[in-house]
Amino acid sequence: MIRAIRAEWTKLMSVRSTAVALLAVFSFTVLIGYLSAQGGHGNANDAPRTVDHFSFVHSELSGDGSVTARVARQKDSAPWAKSGVVIKASTASGSSYVALMVTPDHGVRMLADARTEATGEGDTAAPVWLRLTRAGREITGYESADGRAWRKVGTLTARALPARAQAGLFVASHGRMHERLVGPGEIVGGFRPTTGQAVFDHVTLAPAAGNWTLTDVAEPPVVGGPPAEIRTASESPGTLRRAGDTFTITGSGDLGRIGIAGVGSELHGFDRVKDSLSGAQFGMIAAIALGVLAMTSEYRTGTIRTTFGASPRRARVLAAKAVVLAGTVFPTGLAAAVTALLLTRPIQRRNGMGPPVNPDPSLSDPTVLRAVVGTAATLALVALLSLGVGVLLRRTAGAVILLFGVFLVVPIVAQVSSVDVNNWVNRATPIAGLAIRQTMHLLGDSTSPWGGFAVLCGYTAVALGAAFWVQGRRDA
Question: Cys-Cys crosslink for 25: which of 82, 114, 212, 286, Cβ 3.0 to 4.6 Å?
């Protein structure tokens, strides 16, 4: 087998078109990704960076002390809806604070002045006990499952907390994105405010509090300009119902800063990695040509008879061709994918598609690494699929036309047809393999990364399996 691989490697590298095809795989993948990044612009990062808007049930806390409450129930109005306890300089939006909160989907979080954040243990959800203890400007947060055994979440410092501050309970719920596909690649939608609700009991303030007061901590309205969805609030003010030591509070808005405590999470509508790797679809053109020519060129010149004469075991010859082909296309695709990612990253940042709304992709992130390596693997699989089709058809023109139709013409036609047709093509044909580039789920995505990759693997296995079977049963 090693001798066969060496022979196929020598043949492949001796053909001038091999170097041209590999250069084209690299160039198309990088160049198209570069052009896509240059043409993409966004303004999500021009939105207000911080938000301080919520329903606040409070009483005065003079000097050091603590506020404790159990969040008995919390409405799942939004993934980052927040309910908890807070010590704040005043009821004015933007005044210094430290808050300890529970969220429906992201556990317990502690936040100071939209600058620093601490994370609780695991995926804790209501019911949960929360406590803030003040010592000067330093405030320590604790969480508990039963109100007896407490675990420290962290100690954070408020930037400007007067001796007489306001302490109590708060509820916030950010706006949510509602989208729908009206055509292939055409998405309409917008933000809708949500209203959160939480039930608190076992509420204590030490030193003892006076009367509890409900205040809507509200920011001034944003008029025009860039997206302001992180400040969306309900048209209705917050409400308070009290029965003994049980408080039921509703409220809207949010608390934090883009990139901290989930603020701006609903603004994420751009997959930077997928955009960087958009050139892979054009890199496949060269991979198809290389895969087809690896077999059909020998049929065209008649050298296939010499190959089979020197190595009568045809299955071994085809296996060696597949190993050599994948072994050349994969590293080329990997180099191209890494280059495209690194090259487009600063361009995306410059065009408003970077942090904090769209964090910089890093190869140390397993999801990003999967997309990059998966793109290289997809190019190699396309080359192997083309090799199998080349064996079956024996004719370069016929095999190339068929594969170009499958990978280029059919997806283009599907994009201008209907949502259902476009989704089916991107989910059930070999082009589904490109889904491996996705690092976040967006509305226009037709399939999952691994699901689409599995579809391409299936087609490749069938093509190669048929090629092995046919090649062993017909004349050279």
Answer: 286
Give residue 4's pLDDT: 59
Beta carbons of 129 and 69 less than 8 angstroms apart: yes
d(CA 442, CA 436): 13
Q: Are 139 and 94 in contact (CB under 8 A)?
A: no
Work out the number of other CB atoms within 10 angstroms of the CB of residue 392.
18
For the record, the structure tokens of 211 come out as 């009367």
- Helix crossing, 449-471 with 314-350: angle to 10°? 150
Instruction: Please give the structure tokens belonging to residue 46.
Output: 């021009």
Q: Which amino acid is at 397?
A: A
- What are the tokens at 166? 């306001």
The two beta strands, 82-88 and 164-172, are antiparallel
- The strand pair at 186-192 and 65-74 is best described as unpaired
Task: With residue 36 as reference, give the H or E element that holds it.
Answer: helix 16-39
pLDDT in tens, 181-193: 555 556 655 667 8
The model carries a pTM of 0.72
Predicted confidence at residue 219, as pLDDT, reads 73
Torsion of CA 364, 365, 366, 370, to 10 degrees: -90
The segments of the chain whose pLDDT lies below 70 read 1, 3-14, 42-48, 177-191, 220-236, 265-269, 299-315, 443, 472-476
